[in-house]
Specification:
mainly alpha, about 220 residues, about 85% helix
Length: about 220
Amino acid sequence: MTHGEASTRYLTARFLRMLSLTLGELDAVRDAARRAEYAGLTRRAGALERETDALEREIEDACLHAFAGPLTPDELAFHLMVFRSLTNLERVGDYAFGVARDLEALAPRTRSATLQDVLPLVNLLAEMLERLAYAFAERDVKAAREVMRLDEEEVDALYEQMLRASLTRLHERPDDVEVALAAHRMARSLERLGDHLVNVAERLEALVQGSVQAVW
């Protein structure tokens, strides 16, 4: 096995693990929202986020080591795709953790309906993450494009729906400004999380299609 082949195999496994960790953060959020039990959510999501951050550094070091050795053009494009996508996945973990922290902080002070507003969007983003992991593992352009379509057609609509719900509650309960602002922040974080998944999907599409310039 060549240097490039060994590195490609290693990075594929570790990048999939990073996708799995970020999905785990979203799973923790939606499990808490479904059960309306938020105690300990920040701790659970934080542990996954720290593992994600450590894995980002590990993969970054592995990419830099690989760049120093011989790589075929296809292997170089793959390593560039992974290297460039690390920041996106790290930000996905950050946003998911922020939502988890806000949900646990708000839980004692607001109605469960407000907290569960996040559930449809979190479910959709978890689906996008699963499709992205499949697209990456199988080099499946169709699955990568489905991630982009879901963001364009459904994430933005649910984001607007969350914003309208928070504004409606603020109108009904004008003293509850802090809850409304936190709901707005969670909606924005989840919308941006989707944007980062699209960035990775677009890079993956370019990789499979052989467009190295677009990968970089």
